[in-house]
Each structure stands twice: as structure tokens, then as C-alpha cells.
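@channel sequence for tomorrow's demo:
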Amino acid sequence: MLIPRIISESISRDLKNTNKVIIIYGPRQSGKTTLSKQVIEQSGLKTLSVNGDQMKYVDVLSSRDLNKLKSLVQGYELLFIDEGQRIPDIGINLKILHDEIPELKIVVTGSSSFLLSGKITESLAGRKKTYTLFPIAIKELSELYNPFEINEQLEERIIYGQYPEIINLTGFSEKEEYLNDISSSYIYKDIIELENIKFPLKIRDLLRLLSYQIGSQVSIHELGKQLGLNRETVERYLYLLEQAFIIFRLPAFSKNPRKEIRKSHKFYFYDNGIRNILINNLNPLNLRNDTGALWENFLITERLKKMSYNRVNFSSYFWRTYSGTEIDYIEEMQGKRFAYEFKFKQSKAKIPKSWKEQYGSDFMVINNENYLDFVL
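C-alpha cells (generated this afternoon):
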């Protein structure tokens, strides 16, 4: 089943109307190659497709030699480079192609933003348009299913996640096998191979520890003690996992440091399925004691997808006082502040008095009956 991707139309429009290099980031297996090929096919442009693992192309695309680059793309209207982060000096070579052959359209995908963006940000300043493709969003599924059908699938999405392949697989055993395959090493393959990780097994151990702490404040010091790593190394691993689109962090909101926690973070997974397979728990919700944490992870991730695809400029946080009063999720945008509490079934919760007195009364509980408004 072909699932329509929200950013498809924008990419097609940019491909047609500009000569900027189009770069598509995102987690491995999120559908970047499939999306790119669909857009390219619709464009009707004569295309040279290159994979970053193919040495015969890597040598040319890392050469900085204009004659070699011209020879490679001669006769083509579009150059598509898949897994661009694997090509040395990709940024400067894309700059040469863009500046010297301005009529050539270029589309590049990269599975780890820290590998690709570090090489292209400076070289392609003013010359690129970037997109991030996440695992399937509920908004994308709403193009295929009505609200009743989406609600029928909700538990499966919360447990098995939303990678395109997962949604297309029918059997639960097949889904489990797929999640095992990509979580074993594939999703952080770039980190281990290209970032000279001294203790690669610690990456998985760190992810497993974070899996048990979604929705909770995370102590870097405690993570280091449990892993036998110093704080600097733990921070580096966390940064790499964030840049590889496996986890992301939510900082604490505070305008009153005497009463409110302000230097702490929570970590969430871009995909619930990856989180659940890391702790070997794909049980249904009625057999779990972490439904609230899964619901929180699901909603915050879906909200992030929504805001990213709509290109909304916003900031997000959690809030907690030293006395233990807390709110799950805070958003700030356009000078306004909104507070949300996530309860899978419960429909009521009181806004904390201290929050209301200091920051206002825009407060809502998001549960399994009204969540579609929040994520769509």
C-alpha cells in the first residue's frame, strides 16, 4: 500500500520552480528513497540515480573536479543521490554542480543529519532546501482512513510504531521480526560505522535505559554510572542518537528558577515500536503498566511531525516544580503559551494552581477520544 507523504507536494513544487539542491533527511527506513523516486517519476525529468555506497560514483562525486562532475551528469536533467552522507566532501561537490551547472536539478537523501548537514550547511548556504521525513504520521494515514478506522488502529500504532514497512505488514510476528531487524543495529549503523564509537554496545544499552524512562526526567549522571561511562561520553552518545533521528529531548520550562526545575530533560523516541522492541515488550495495552508513558511518547511525536510538516516555528517543554507539581507538555508559539496533560482514558484533570497563577489558563487534557484534533 502506497501511503501519501505530506511533504511530497512541496518537494515537487520546489523541484519544478527552483534550482536549489533539495535535501531530504530522516531516520533510516522512513521512506526517503521511495518518496524521492515518486517525486522524480512525476517530474518526468531524465534522471541519474546514484547510491552513496557505489564506489564508481563516490570517486567522482568526491573529486572536486568540474570536468569529472560534468562528464558524470552530461545528458541528464536531474541528479538523485541516495545516502549522500556516505560521500566524502559531498557539500563542496554539490556546490560546484549547483554553481557550474545551474540547469541541473539535484535531490539528495541522508539518513543521519549530523553526518550530512555538517558537510553541506556551509557549502550550500543559500543553495539548498531541506525537508525532514519522519515515520508515517497520523495525518498521512488520515488520507487513507476515516477517523473510525484510525481509532481502530490506534493500539497497534502505539505498540508497533509507524515505520512504513510496519504499517504494510499484516502479521504481528512479521512486525516483531522487522522491528528486531532494524533495532539490532540498522537504525544506528551510521553512528557506529562513521563516528568511531569506542563502545558500540553501550549505544544499545543507553537506548534501553532511556526506553524505561520515557516521560520521566533523565539524569545524565545516573546514566553514566549505570553504563560505566563518563558524563561527556554519555552526552556525546545522546547527541548522536538525536541527530540520527532515534530520540529527541524535551527541556524543562522555567521562568522561576527558585521554584521550578529548569536544567532537566526528558527523552522520547521518534517511534514507539523501536522503544518497545528495545525492552522486548510488544504486549497489548491491557497487559502493560506503561500505557501512560507510551501515550505521551506517541502524542508528543505526532505533534512534532505535525509542526515540522506545517513548518510552524514553536518551542516545546515539560514543566515541573521542586514540590512535584507538573504538566506533561508546554508549547510556545507566536507569543502564546499552551499547556497539555496526556491521559489515555481519563478526560479530566485540573490545571495546577501555580501554573495558572503565573502563566495563564490555556490548558487541555488530551485523551483517546479527542487526540485527533491535537495531531491533525
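heads up for whoever presents: The chain has a mean pLDDT of 92.
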